[in-house]
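Entry:
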Amino acid sequence: MFLSIVSFLLILSALVLVHELGHYLFARLFGVRVLEFAVGFGPRVFAKKGKMTEFRINCVPIGGYVKMAGEDLNISSEEIPKEQLFNTKPAWQRFLITFSGPLFSIIAGFMVFASAGAIWGFPEIKVERVTPDSPAYHAGIRAEDRITAINGRTLIQNQSLTDAIRKGEPLELTVKRNGEEQVLKTEPAEFPQEALFVIKDFHGEAGDELSMINGAAFRRDFAAYSDILAPGITMRLDFDTGETLRGTLEGFSISEERFALGFYFAAFKPVIKNDIQGLQKGDQLVRVGHMKLEDGVDLSLLAQAINLDENSFIIHFSGKAVEWYSYGFPEILEIEVVRNGSTATLEIAKQDFVKAITEPNVFQEGFDYWYPENAFQALGTGVRWANEMLVAMFRVLSQLFSGGAGIDDFTGPVGLVSIVGQATRAGLRTVFILVGIITLNLGVINMLPLPALDGGRMVLALVEMVIRRRIPPKVEGYIHAVGFFMLMALILYITMIDIGRFL
């Protein structure tokens, strides 16, 4: 945990330095006197006095600031010439000084992603498994295929392909198989609602297709039962072949209809990457308890079921059809592995196994990395990668205002400490990409049109440019003061959520 905190503070300090450097340089460009350039808050730990600016490192290393003359009306600026005050500058100059911080953060994010692509390459978009009788299967897509382009455009991350599939429009996929490329035409199909039920103290068996829920005929609409499906209720599922499953509903989730092709992306292999908890590097998991593991899809299903006890049952439906199900697992697991070409059976406590498989970098990746033809193409592709990430971030933030996402979906400083800790254990490449994501986020979040953020100041400057009249500085100061307290309350709320997740 200590290493995670230190790593987080170092990364945050570097990103804040870049952000505030943007404010500082543009303030100097327009002749605004910068009184302080600080990383961190609170009493100073180190300071160096420049010609007009004091450069500081403060004792609370979270955030930073650039203090400009005339920015805070409560601080006297009588000894400073009027033309060097922030609040005397034209609205367009104040807009650019404010905008420069987010701009520098976003530019830095682009540089990080471009560098990551040039150094490490880009992850392959690889197919793990294809669902029989699906659009993907009929189009000729097969396991182990690498999808290199969509509608003629090079594919960098699988989210871009997922977004295109969700539109439900015809697609041309360029697929590389055994070193040869071919273009496959396909069209996504609408897949039915899906539901996942966890039932404890269960009795009975599951069949092939669901026919009734609690005695009422099931008509492919799980959402119609959402009002009565509450944890703790007695549950009865009847199947078309006569089986019945009873028990107490412990949890459930429902996914609406969606367009899909019917294949799974490769993520991880069930092969151990490093020695951990009785498992050795190179061990291939072939069975954990009653569950057989053939590929990364099985590994993901195991992750959903492994924490359930023996009295619990998890079942996944796609429409009426049962996609998969599993019983819970005992406290001592019998694990079958292939080790050095021979089969071995191990006994490991479930809590130790769960702890092991949730560690970063424990499984081998199920894909390789590809490199463009030269460094210039790698840098260009990295810039495209960053741009796609940036667009996705703006999309998520727009969902916050439209109701598609909630504050609970975001993370704060405590959550970032945990994420950074996992990234440092996963390797330098993961840390590098995480830095790119965080600095892009820093730029995007700061452009939100909220008081006390750069975006709020930018909006007020734009208003002045439109109305051609100066907003009274005191009024602007009150707006930002109220916004600051609201922002601190929001950060505190998100931090409490993070602590709850951590606990």
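The longest helix spans residues 91-120.
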